[in-house]
């Protein structure tokens, strides 16, 4: 499967620019403290979203849109200092690295990862291991709208506009094409 993913490449047409996603591009583009444009973020991490979708059955479009929103396209201080691309807090069961960051409250504990790839993998583990998200796996991975709404309704984020922001990113950047991989 990894070989298939490594050989896979897709083109997303976004604002008339072709962006090629592949494993080699991801490996070259993971640079700490780099400021990303949306194109660079999609090229750098789209492969990880597809890989995570295949492993955990979560739509790649939703995964990447969440990461884009949570990190401001990889430019947030949390993502830069911790490789946490999903805003996942430590929680009582977290045994890994930690970083303090002010979000909803001052100096909250967030998960920290050795790499962005680890963040994407942990996101998949996090969603699939929480009972309040399990109903989402009855939804087809091509239905990014229902997934976005379902994640928000299950409590993923506190922003009342969260699901609409995810949907807007998916549609603006045509991320739904990733779900066909």
UniProtKB/TrEMBL annotation:
Gene Ontology molecular function: amidase activity
Ranges of residues in domain Mannosyl-glycoprotein endo-beta-N-acetylglucosamidase-like: 31-179
Record-linked InterPro entries: Glycosyl_Hydrolase_73, MGlyc_endo_b_GlcNAc-like_dom
Pfam families per UniProt: Glucosaminidase
Keywords: Hydrolase
Database matches in PANTHER family: PEPTIDOGLYCAN HYDROLASE FLGJ
Protein name per UniProt: Glucosaminidase domain-containing protein
Origin species: Flammeovirga aprica JL-4
